Amino acid sequence: MYSSVSYATRGTEQIGDPSTLNLTDLDLQSLSSDSASRIRVVQFDTHALGFGQGRGIRATWNRNGPSSHQSLLFVLVRLGKVNLADSTGTLALGPEDIALVSPSSGAVSWVAEDSVELVCITLDPGTAAASQEIVPARKLPPRTAMFRATYALLASATQGAPDADAAEIALLHELTLNSAQALVQASLPNLADDDTAGRALEILETRFHSALFSIDDVARELQTSCRTLERAAALRGVRLSDELSLLRTRHALTLLTERPELSVTDVAASSGFGSAEVMRRAFQRHFQRSPAQIRDGLDTAPPEALP
C-alpha cells in the first residue's frame, strides 16, 4: 500500500483538500496556519511519514483512523518550537528534539507559534520492532548525529516520494521503516532511568493488606496515570491488577495454613480482600479450590499454583 497527500496554504488560498489528510494514519484535523505553510504525508502499509513547514501551524492528530490509535508517533523538529500535548501532558520541543507518543485513543495537539520545520513518522505496533510498549509522551535524549541522519532521510523521502515507480517506492518503504525501528530501539534503554513498573510493584508489596488500596492509589503516589502504569508493567510482561491479586492470595494462603485460629473472614480482611467472597473467587481462580477446602485439608494447593 502506498499513497501521498499534499496540502498548502498561501495567505487565504488553500492548495489541496485538507480532508484528504484524514485518510492517512496521521489523521490530521483542525489544521490551521497563520501564514504560508505546507504539509505532505506519505502512507505505507506499516507506517506513515509527514513533513510540515510554516508559521503558526496548529493541528490535532485525532487517531480516529483504523490503525492510527494503535500507532507509535515520533516527531523530529529541525527548526522552531512546537508544543505537543496528549492526555499525559505537554512537551515543549525545540530544534533537534525528538519526541515519542505511544499508542492511545486520545488526541494529540500540535501548536507551533513561530516558523517551524518538522517531520514525523508513525509506526504500526504490530511491526516486530515496535511490539514493545513504551511509556507515553516523552523526549528522547539529545543525539545530534542520529537526529540529522534520520531527519535528512525522512524529509527527503516525504518531499520527494515517487508517484509511480514501484521499485523506488519499495526501497523507500524499507529505508524509512528501518529508520522508524531504529528510533524505537533508541528509546527503549531510557526506560531503565524511569522504572515506573518497579516502583509500582514495590508499593503493591507494602500496601496490599488494605482492602481500600487499589491501582489508582499507586498512580496517585507516583503522580502518573493508571494507563501509564499498565504500559510500564507490560514491558515486564505483568499486569498490576494480577500482581495485586497474587500478593493478597499468597498472604491469605499463608494465614489459612499457619493461623488456624483466624476465621476465613478474618483472613480475608488481613490479606486485603474486600470480603470472604472476593477471596473465595480469587482462590478458585488460582487453585480451583475454596479457602475452606484448603484449610480443612480436603485438598491442598499445589506448590506451583502461584507464580
What does this structure look like?
The protein is built from nine helices and eleven strands. With 307 residues, the chain is of the alpha+beta class. The longest helix is centred in the middle third of the chain and has 22 residues, at 166-187. The protein is elongated, with a radius of gyration of 25 Å. 33% of the residues are buried. The model is unreliable at 128-133 and 298-304 (pLDDT under 50).
What does the secondary structure layout of this molecule look like, with pairings?
Blueprint (H helix, E strand, L loop, with lengths): L1 E9 L2 E3 L12 E5 L4 E8 L2 E15 L10 E8 L2 E5 L2 E5 L3 E5 L6 E16 L14 E2 L4 H16 L6 H22 L8 H12 L7 H8 L3 H9 L5 H19 L5 H7 L5 H12 L3 H5 L12
Antiparallel strand pairs: 1-2, 1-4, 3-5, 4-5, 5-10, 6-9, 6-10, 7-8, 7-10, 9-11
Helix pairs in contact: 1-2, 3-4, 3-5, 3-6
Summarize the structure.
Helices cover 36% and strands 26% of the residues. With 307 residues, it is of the alpha+beta class.
The end-to-end span amounts to 44 Å
Query: What structural category characterises the helix and strand content?
Result: alpha+beta
What summary fits the major beta sheet? 11 strands, antiparallel
Number of helices: 9
| Global morphology | elongated
Mean pLDDT: 80
- As for the number of domains, it is 2
Number of strands: 11
- Summarize the amount of helix as a percent range: 25-40%
What integer value in Å does the Rg equal? 25 Å
CATH architectural label of the largest domain: Sandwich
Quote the CATH topology of the largest domain. Jelly Rolls
Low-confidence stretches: 128-133, 298-304
Strand content: 25-35%
**String of helices and strands:** EEEEEEEEEEEHHHHHHHHH
